[in-house]
Each structure stands twice: as structure tokens, then as C-alpha cells.
């Protein structure tokens, strides 16, 4: 795929009259109409703000959507990751393998429990965890005297990781597979929904996610009933028979009833929104493939397009962002610094001294507006502006 080679080719144009939203939550709310307001009002009327019936209903519907036996809702995607590590007893001396090209939360939770994150490079086509680099990272962890315990593949930008390769590696080395589908919930791998792959899945309902609430929220999905019992204890201060018996160290990580009520309404239209996101992504790909490296989706996968991310040659990306900003078109860079180069994480081991794919992506990627309500006229304006900016 082509990548524009020089920033000098960028040509800004006059700004549009109205700035274009990066993610249009207002359009989604307009589609839902009074349903969300009514759902929230029902919670207000009941005064059951914590552990109300909407939470239980949402967990059941979420599990059914994903094809998992159980869902345990919680306060954020980050807490979902941490709860699983706590429930599995991960701690000092244990190695947890994380991709280097991801949001910090994936690795952030590992030091919380006293374990060591070990960073893995990603694949150049999907940006997801590279199985070959994972094997190298496992060897490095063992050399350093760490015990490999968990691998956290990330379903980055909406596309599931290569589970056909990762699951056998995990099985050979006795690793738990914690799927981080904060960006990928609703996607599929070999026709299986994310949430029904691996030992357990953590997801996020942050408002910008494909399935988002009106604040923070998250969930864990699994088929393991024993794990669910421990997770519910962890979620409620490590409680035993009741909240005043504490059988383990826990946290407070409940999903608010109001957020569950909002998510029930959004889950009802989620399938339609996934299809709409796919349509937007296809139009972008068709219009921009000759001037940029457009996203690649593995034929075994389907994406929910949490982000639509292009690659341009180093030096072009930032100038393009500036040119689009001048036209009222927002962009974002996910991510500018690879995890193993972040100051807070530089002390931790990686599969190699350099993880070249992750490091290269940080200089090249840029994301365009992407949501289910991006109409063709607005999309055409964005496409035209990108082409104009790079002189095409």
C-alpha cells in the first residue's frame, strides 16, 4: 500500500463552516430518542443506584450477545483487567505478556498486583500481537527468572488478535489467555464473538468505545463458573458470605445501575451500528487506498472499527493532522509512544531491545473520524480533505 513520502506535499484548504465530530454520540442519542431518558428515569424512580435489576439483566444480555456463559459487569475496562489478575492470583515473580502498541491500561494493571509486564511486538498488517515476538518474550521472561503466567492479546482498533496462533502458544507454556477487547467487543474471529475466546475477556464501555455508556464501565466474560464466583467477591471488597466477611483482598468495582440501563438500550442497536461502521470503513478504504496504507482486516476476522487508522510515511502524519485541523476535521494518534518506551514502563523487559514494528507505527499512524452515524456526505468531505492535503 502506498504511503505519501514528504510533508512538503501537504496543502491546507479553508475550514468547513461546522467542525466534524470525531465520534458523534449526539447522533446516536437522537436515534435512541426517549428510550435512554426513560431507562435512566426508571432507575431514578427506583432509587436502586447500586446493583439494581438492570445490572443483572445487562449481564445476561451481554453474555448472550458474546456467546459466553457468564458476564460480570464492573466499573471500567481497566478494573476488568485488574480483577482477572487478582482472581487468578497473579503476583510477584510472575510475567504477564502485553503488546507494546496499545493503550497503557493493558500493562498498567500488571504492576498493581506486583507482577512484571513483558512487552511484545505487533504485526505490521493488523497491529495486533505478533506470535513470534510472544515466543521470544516468553524466553526472555524465563531467562530473567520470571514465571510466565498470562498473555493479554489486545483486539486493537476493533479487530481481534490472531488467536489461531496465540492460543496454542499459551497452551504450550501454560499461560492464561486474558483477551483485552476494550476496542474490539462485537468483532469476530473464525465467526466467534470476542468475549467467547480464551480463558476470559475484559472489555470497556467508556463512551468513545463502539458499545459505550455515559461514563465509565466495563465487564468480564468467561465460561468459568468458579472464576465468576471469585470475580464477584473481588468486585465487592473481597466479600465472603456477605459484605462484612472479607475472604480476600478486593476492590470496589461495581457498574452503576444507571450505566447498565443506558447500555441495555445501546446493546439493542449494536448490531446495526457494527454494520454501519463496516460500511464507513469500506468507503474509506476504497477512496484512500491509493494514497495511504489503509487498514487490513484478517480474512478470519471481522472488525467493529473502534478506530479507522491510516499509515503515512514518517514526517507526513503530523503535518496532515495540522492541515485537517485547519479544515475543522479532527484526527487522533493512537499511539505516539510504544509501551516499552514510556517512562513509567521502560524498566520492564521486552522481547528484544527494539520492537521495530511498534516503534515504527508510533511515527506513522493517524485516525480519522469513525462512528456509525458518519453519513456519506460528511465522509466525502473528509476524504476530499485528506486527498487535498497530500496533493492527490
Automatic annotation (TrEMBL):
InterPro entries with a match to the protein in the record: DegT/StrS_aminotransferase (IPR000653), PyrdxlP-dep_Trfase (IPR015424), PyrdxlP-dep_Trfase_major (IPR015421), PyrdxlP-dep_Trfase_small (IPR015422)
Active site: 209 (proton acceptor)
Coiled coil: none
Domain of life (superkingdom): Bacteria
Positions where N6-(pyridoxal phosphate)lysine occurs in the chain: 209
Gene Ontology terms, MF aspect: pyridoxal phosphate binding; transaminase activity
The entry's keywords: Aminotransferase, Pyridoxal phosphate, Transferase
Keyword Transferase in record: yes
GO BP annotation list: polysaccharide biosynthetic process
Assigned protein family: Belongs to the DegT/DnrJ/EryC1 family.
Stated name of the protein: Aminotransferase
